[in-house]
Amino acid sequence: MDIVALCQCLQPHVPATTCRQFQRIALAMLVMTGRVTMLGIARWAGTGGSYRTVQRFFSTVIPWAMLFWMFFRQHVYCPGDVYLLVGDEVVVTKAGKITHGLDRFFSSLYGKPVPGLAFFALSLVSVQARRSFPMRIEQVIRSDAEKAASKAKAAAKKPTTPCAKRRPGRPKGSTNKPKAPVTLTPELVRINAMIDALLHLIARLIPLTYLVLDGHFGHHNAVHMAQQSNLHLISKLRCDAALYFPYTGPYAGRGPRRKYGPKIDYDHLPVHYLKETTVEGYIQTHYYQMQLLHKEFQHPLNVVIIAKTNLRTQARAHVVLFSSDLELAYTPLVDYYGLRFQIEIV
């Protein structure tokens, strides 16, 4: 009866028959064990949940994004809470050849591309409750242009034959060329459309400021995509990212003013950027925060470097987090990126 009461808010958007079927199927999925299949759902659904009924339900076109939002607004939303917009992709292995959207996707669990299905999800993560609430989920269907771009990127990483070394300095007769405008990849175009649709659905009822994505999106194009939706990106850079301090020296007297200062050395970070030090067991953790430049980003980045040292072996490791919001302190930046993992355990 609790499920029936909770689903009352969905009735204006789906037929009564579909709502009754949903209540039966939801109850069966909560109590069943093992792999979730239509046959298993029918066995656990009881009266009114035959196999044919389950088939009819899953063949019905349902506005899931609207239902997720209405359920969240009615039963979960807290006006005084702070919410983050978090996105992530999940890959489900699948055999066969005729399943819609079947392709090879990179799986972090296997560490390699595997045949299967991919789904991209957007969730609202509550900072106070520290829970994730899915809002929009779409299957990833890779276009021919996206597949060609992926192959070209893989081919560019392959070692090539060394070319003749040219003389140092700028070639004679070369001129300045304007930077090409940022062009979103097909993947980012698809994600940007999902974000805009979600923002339009919630009608700015929730003031969203930050978009949190994993290290796959730690590049300038993703920052540009977030800024198009008036959001700041929080993500992770490679551990060997080439970051530079802004140049603060004197003007040379000729030519353009120098922009990039010394390159950051992750093994010898300046002490005056140290914000906090913690020791847990034999692991010592240093938190550094600074504004740095990257040659592939148009604007400075708010960078937080988490450096860990094993006091027994002196082994070192570090993580580089960043945000396009230069005013964000290191504590919420680290906390917000850590909350991204809540989307993994929905």
Can you walk me through this structure?
By secondary structure, this protein is α+β, with helices and mostly antiparallel strands. Among the domains are: 1-62, no CATH class; 243-329, no CATH class. It has 9 helices and 12 strands. The protein has helices spanning 2-6, 16-31, 38-45, 51-58, 64-75, 144-157, 186-202, 220-228, 330-339, and strands spanning 83-93, 103-107, 112-126, 131-139, 210-212, 232-237, 243-246, 260-263, 274-280, 283-294, 301-310, 316-323. Strand 10 and strand 11 (301-310) form a beta hairpin. Helix 2 packs across helix 3 (38-45) and helix 3 (38-45) packs across helix 4 (51-58). The longest helix is centred in the middle third of the chain and has 17 residues, at 186-202. The model has no long low-confidence stretch (mean pLDDT 88).
Determine the number of helices (DSSP H or I, runs of at least 4 residues).
9
Low-pLDDT parts are none
Q: SSE order, as H and E?
A: HHHHHEEEEHHEHEEEEEEEH
Number of strands: 12
Strand content: 25-35%
Identify the quaternary structure here: single chain
Shape: globular
Structural class by secondary-structure content: alpha+beta
**Kindly state the mean pLDDT as a whole number?**
88
For the biggest sheet, the summary is:
12 strands, mixed
- Give Rg in angstroms: 25 Å
The CA-CA distance between the termini, in Å, is: 23 Å
